[in-house]
């Protein structure tokens, strides 16, 4: 029987700490196969993503659209679904809400990276960009790292205030900051989740900082100034989520960094090593993360 899960049911099936653990397990699973995703440009500036993946038990295809201008229409930026199949029988066994999986698995990947790479994990946490990904990262870092202090920066004060209110409802000490670059000096944990249409961060992260750069996931997108990326490459540690980042990590590619020479999150999961700060973790997305979510959701 096919399980059709709406946004709320999908979220309940994917607690952040457990999802981070499932992602780590997937990175150690030799049966996982993830072909390159298809990104089809759409008229008007949107994109259609087709992202299949499989392991020995579960196969998925993620079908979502990304339309940056949807905020002005009052619509979600990401829409679509993840179809889950049983490998042995080929039967469809589940349908998960695509935006919910995207938000939660992306934050869980950042959480796993912070668990393995962050020189300091106590915060304060600075979130730059107060949309869906800002909210999911806030929840993930609170649940998985125990962060209690949060600073929120957004070009729209109302969005920042709404995320601050959500953080306070979770029992966190939260406040809005109007200068994200200045806030870098007091925050060892930083997550950037902006629409990435232009550089929004030019400040220098602390020596003990962990940065999860999430917003830019194509070569043309960018959040961090090229000189900041080059500085962190010279004095710290750069890690990418997967080898797909070699041609998708806009922040690093536009800084002229040889992304193909950087280690991946899987490298750190399989062989932990010492970290030299600051740490810059570049996340671009991968269907394997959606497969991990499907594995967890269908096992619950």
From TrEMBL:
The broad enzyme category this protein falls into is lyase
Q: What's a Pfam family this protein contains?
A: OCD_Mu_crystall
**What's the Enzyme Commission number for this chain?**
4.3.1.12
Q: Does the keyword Transmembrane belong to this entry?
A: no
Supply the InterPro entries for this chain: NAD(P)-bd_dom_sf (IPR036291), ODC_Mu_crystall (IPR003462), ODC_N (IPR023401)
PANTHER family per the UniProt record, alphabetical: KETIMINE REDUCTASE MU-CRYSTALLIN
Q: Which UniProt keyword terms apply here?
A: Lyase
According to UniProt, the name of this protein is Ornithine cyclodeaminase
Q: Name one GO molecular function term.
A: ornithine cyclodeaminase activity
Q: Does the UniProt entry include the keyword Lyase? A: yes
């Amino acid at each position: 029987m096919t399980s059709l899960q709406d946004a709320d049911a999908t979220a309940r099936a994917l607690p952040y700490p457990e999802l981070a653990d499932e992602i780590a397990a997937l990175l150690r699973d030799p049966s996982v196969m993830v072909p390159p995703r298809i990104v089809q440009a759409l008229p008007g500036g949107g994109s259609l993503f087709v992202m299949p993946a499989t392991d020995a038990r579960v196969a998925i295809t993620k079908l979502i659209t990304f339309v940056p201008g949807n905020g002005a229409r009052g619509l979600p930026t990401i829409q679509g679904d993840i179809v889950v199949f049983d490998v042995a029988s080929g039967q469809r066994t589940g349908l998960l809400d695509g935006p919910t999986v995207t938000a939660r698995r992306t934050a869980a990947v950042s959480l796993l990276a912070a668990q393995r790479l962050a020189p300091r994990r106590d915060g304060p946490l600075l979130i730059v960009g107060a949309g869906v990904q800002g909210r999911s990262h806030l929840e993930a870092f609170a649940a998985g790292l125990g962060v209690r202090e949060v600073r929120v920066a957004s070009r729209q004060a109302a969005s920042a205030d709404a995320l601050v209110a959500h953080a306070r409802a979770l029992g966190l000490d939260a406040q809005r900051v109007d200068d994200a670059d200045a806030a870098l000096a007091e925050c060892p944990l930083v997550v950037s989740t902006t629409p990435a249409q232009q550089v929004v961060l030019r400040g220098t992260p602390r020596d003990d900082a962990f940065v999860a750069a999430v917003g830019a996931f194509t070569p043309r997108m960018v959040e961090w100034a090229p000189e900041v990326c080059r500085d962190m490459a010279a004095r710290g540690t750069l890690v990418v989520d997967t080898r797909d980042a070699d041609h998708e990590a806009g922040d690093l590619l536009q800084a002229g960094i040889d992304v193909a020479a950087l280690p991946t999150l899987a490298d750190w999961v399989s062989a932990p090593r010492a970290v030299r700060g600051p740490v810059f973790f570049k996340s671009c997305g991968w269907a394997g993360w959606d497969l991990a979510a499907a594995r967890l959701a269908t096992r619950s």
